Amino acid sequence: MVPQPSPSRVPLPPPLAAGHLHEIHADADGWAAALGFVLAAVTGAQKPTAPPIVLVRAAKTRQGLQPCGAGWAQLGFDSRRLVIVETPDSLALLRAGLDAARCPGLAAVVLETWGPLPDYDLTASRRLVLAAERSGALVIVLRGDAPPRASAAQTRWRIASAPSIALAAQAPGHAALTATLQRQRGGASGLSWLLHRDGWQGGFHDKASLADVQPAPLSGAVVPFPALRAGETHRAA
Amino acid sequence: MKRTAPPDADLPFALVARVGQALRLAALEKDGASHGLAVGMTLADARARCPDLLTAPHDPVEDGKLLAALAGRMARFTPMVALDPPDGLVLDITGCAHLFGGEAALTRLAMAEAGLSARPALASHAAAARALARFERGQAGGEEGLRIRALPIAALELPEASLSGLRRAGLKQLGDLASRPMGSLAARFGEEAVAKLRAILGEAGSPITARTAAPPIRADIRFAEPIGRTQDVLEVAETLLEDTARQMEARRIGGRRFVLRLERADGALRHLAVETALPTRDAAPVVRLLRERLESLADPLDPGFGFDAMALAVPRHEPLAARQTSSETEDREEETIAALLDRLATRLGEDAILRLHPRDRHSPEKAQALVAAARGLPGATQAPALPRPLFLFDPPQEVSAIAGVPDGPPLRFTWRGRAHEVRLAEGPERIAPEWWRHALGHLPETPLLTRDYYRVEDGAGTRFWLFRHGLFEEQTHPRWYLHGLFS
Q1: pLDDT band per the 50, 70, 90 thresholds, residue A222
Q2: Residues near B164 by Cβ (< 8 Å), separated by ≥ 6?
Q3: Count of structural domains, chain A
Q4: How far is CA B230 from the centre of its chain?
Q5: Nearest to B426 among A105, A161, A172 (CB)
Q6: Which of A63, A55, A127, A67 lies closest to A93, judged by CA?
Q7: What 8-state DSSP symbol labels residue B473?
Q8: Which residues on chain A are in Cβ contact (under 8 Å) with B399?
Q9: Residues 6+ apart with CB under 8 A from A97
Q10: Would you say residue A193 lies in a domain?
């Protein structure tokens, strides 16, 4: 039931590959959208004993934002996997992030940063890249309200929230966002996608491929089956 | 044992326990007998005799803990302290009494140390001391042998059938038994009666098993020449860690907290403490943590003229079975992640490494708590039926909002000086305040404010979680707050 994009369409965005460093830029309004984008990449590989995610953040965030376990659980992320590391300043944040990136066995290391972050230069990003390559961890630097800067990252994204497809009674629909691939090492860049969270498959898809996975319209007395997930068929029958 | 003073000191006080189908008195306060009460009486009888009897449930486990703590305190009088179940202690004061000014003085001191109402007895061996402490009536005095012979036969602590058999035979005191041939007693009342009697009379030994505290795990080293370089200090620490690892391996424990004591040549002392999340006996990770601790010190380690002695102690340890070196990658990964968190905790402080613990609370902001990772693993968060945001504002941020109808969602709101037009809205999800947690929360005169939560999306597509604080019945001008951001 994975939607197969037709050749005429722009393919889905490349996944955030493990073993690499990715930068995600977002402003304050798109902050939750950016985190949703990251979670979609991380929850994709669900294992029975899922490895933890380390979220490194400044102890005094400018926003006063706390992760909400219930909301993460609704996106299919087990909050038991989350380890939050609070650091006093940006240098300690980068050091803790580097240590975590060097540790094998983590699902992802997410560095939550705000502002220009002068300590995060080419050398610092190169260190993170080397650490990620050696440990095979997915390393993501979330950069809030920051101008793009030259770095050794594999990809650089800009995420902003986008108007969703309204549900019944003018209710906000599933999460939607625009993802702009600003830079990709050894690949095409400058592409942009409007992605909608798939309510029953998880993950983000573009609107056209979302249409592919809608249940087929009923014809006569035929029971529609595509809305059933594998494994639930016998229960429904 | 009476642990807390009853509310009214004049009223009798007792602990009750369920024995079979009845509640019976398990313990009485000192003057309980003057009210006609006795241990073992049913609670109904006790209430009939003494209507204002105060009772509390008997907790044998807590009693056991108190007794163990008391035994620990008695170690100041003698190293040989043994528990004498159910509620006694035996102290072997051989060779100790003169240090406290004689046996009588030592007894007085021990009673004061205990701080409870207790009965002391001194005897030449443990079984006699137990019998005298528990069963001697009236003033203690006279020669020990005579006092023991005057004890009632209940001191043998035999089953009631044997005791009544003895009583029927006209034997009321231990002296009556002691003067008879043991063989016939054993034939009639069993081996046990004779063994007990011989122990109390001192004809058979009654050894005690003294509580022994496990020796602390530590290692120390002295240098002929003081050392000053940090690298040398860490290398010596590794040697000490290997030494403690051998001690811990023999006892099948692993250290959770390691304290390194550095003694400088001029007498100054310095302590370095590190903790690990998992018990460990490996030297290398602990040395890494010590190095991390040294680097993160606010005032760096000043060797002065050098350290001339070092000691390593492991004050906190947990069971850790002997283990073969595991080749399973998962085990190793778990260990490396634990080592990473230890390292970060050493550098940034234990409270900087947090995990989300779900809480069974009604308010969204209280339904979770950030708890230091060292305090244990969290439980699973259940995904609620109604939508919850990815991020919560702590505290919620006040916004100015305009609603179309009084009870409806906002039409537009201003947050941080920027106006947001609401395009789509869903709600309300009405979340009542936790009135059961407030002293007067259930009274209509002191209402707590109900929250109406709305999920709204503005024109740019940002999805917010807003709430109106208070219904219109509760407040004339309810305020609006922004509580979260959806993806």
Answers
A1: very low
A2: none
A3: 1
A4: 38
A5: A172
A6: A55
A7: T
A8: none
A9: A56, A109, A111, A128, A139, A141
A10: yes
In this complex, the residue of A31, A78, A104 whose CB is nearest that of residue B336 is A104
The secondary structure element, H or E, covering residue B483 is strand B479-486
Nearest to A66 among B348, B392, B460 (CB): B392
Q: Give chain B positions within 8 Å (CB) of A164.
A: 424, 457, 461, 463
Q: Do B424 and A166 count as a contact with CB atoms less than 8 A apart?
A: yes
Contact map slice: B 301-330 vs A, CB within 8 A: 330
List pLDDT tens digits, range B277-314.
888 888 888 898 888 888 877 777 788 888 999 999 99
Residue A85 and residue B344: Cβ atoms within 8 Å?
yes
Position A9 in a domain: no
Look at residues B124, B175, B138 and name the one whose alpha carbon lies nearest to residue B153: B175
For residue B418, give how far its alpha carbon lies from the nearest alpha carbon of chain A (Å).
11
Q: What is the pLDDT of residues A116-174, one digit of tens each?
A: 888 888 999 999 999 999 988 899 999 988 888 888 989 999 999 888 888 888 888 88
ipTM more than 0.85? no
- Whether A9 shows a pLDDT value over 60: the answer reads no
Q: Which of A79, A104, A106 is facing B356, going by the closest CB pair? A: A79
Predicted confidence band of residue A203 (pLDDT cuts 50, 70, 90): low
pLDDT in tens, B416-457: 888 999 988 887 888 888 888 887 767 777 678 888 899 999
Closest of B195, B200, B177, B179 to residue B121, by C-alpha: B200
Asked if the structure places residue A196 within a domain, the reply is yes
DSSP string, B195-243: HHHHHHHTSS--------PPPP-EEEEEEEEEE--HHHHHHHHHHHHHH
Calculate the average pLDDT of chain B.
84
CATH tag for B218-348 (out of 3.30.450.40, 2.60.40.2310, 3.40.50.300, 3.30.1490.100): 3.30.1490.100
Question: Cα distance from B412 to chain A (closest Cα, Å)?
Answer: 15
**Which residue range forms the structural domain that includes residue A139?**
21-164+173-213+223-236
Q: Which residue has the higher pLDDT, B75 or B239?
A: B239
